[in-house]
Input
Amino acid sequence: MPRSVLITGASSGIGEALAREYATRGWRIALVARRQAMLDTLATELRSLGAPEVITAELDLLDTAAIAPCLERASAALGGLDLVIANAGVANSFAAGQGKIAEMQQMIGVNLTGACATIDAAVADFRRRAHAGQVVGITSMARYRGLPRLGIYSATKAGLHRYLQATRMEHASAGIRVTELAPGYIDTPMNRDIPNRPFVVGAARAARDMADLIERGVDQATVPRWPWTLMGRVMQVLPAAIVSRLT
Ligand SMILES: NC(=O)c1ccc[n+]([C@@H]2O[C@H](COP(=O)([O-])OP(=O)(O)OC[C@H]3O[C@@H](n4cnc5c(N)ncnc54)[C@H](OP(=O)(O)O)[C@@H]3O)[C@@H](O)[C@H]2O)c1
Output
């Protein structure tokens, strides 16, 4: 039977591109996001690209109680999940001191609690089925360094990085693989209003790289690897004055 993947944030950007990539690779696919109409349109396209089975699920990751039941239903419908990609995310840019608590809560809720709950549900599903599945968390270059006006975003991605690190050790003996992918600038609606996006690449190319890295079962990688692997190291040691100037 072809392998199956569940992708959160599949209605746009990287998630949508990953769904197309897995369709052309012949996987069975569960598309998850809030905008059901966009998932339905994408599902029709994916079937024409060669996906043997596509299902959709409307889910708001801020509704944490709905996350595990959503994954359980998708797993049952597809006869078990092999791969779960916790991709959904939001990025609001603002400096501290403006009382933007609702924006903070939204980012923490989607990028951290929502992603961790997705990963938790995936691991529970794999363990219930005694299946050596794989779970992927999409972090960011911002997980390497707290960036000005992206403080909460950076914090959610650093937090997700640590959660993935711990989960990898907890379930390695069961054969469950945990992969972290940290994108640089990928051309998606999330960042189209940013005038300067160094080394930006298209979402289709990024999705191809990501699917290859996932297939290889890497623990963690930047996307694309060049120049972001080097940048990740440099970002951790650059003096704050230089980081401020560059960002
Ligand atoms: N693009 C980049 O350069 C870049 C760089 C580093 C990291 N990333 C990360 O890559 C991931 C994907 O980003 P993207 O660039 O593809 O962004 P995007 O085009 O804005 O897509 C974000 C996705 O997240 C979903 N989402 C947002 N809030 C949600 C909620 N409350 N519940 C469920 N789903 C929700 C959206 O679906 P609905 O609105 O339909 O719910 C959408 O499908 C994110 O985790 C982001 O942080 C992106």
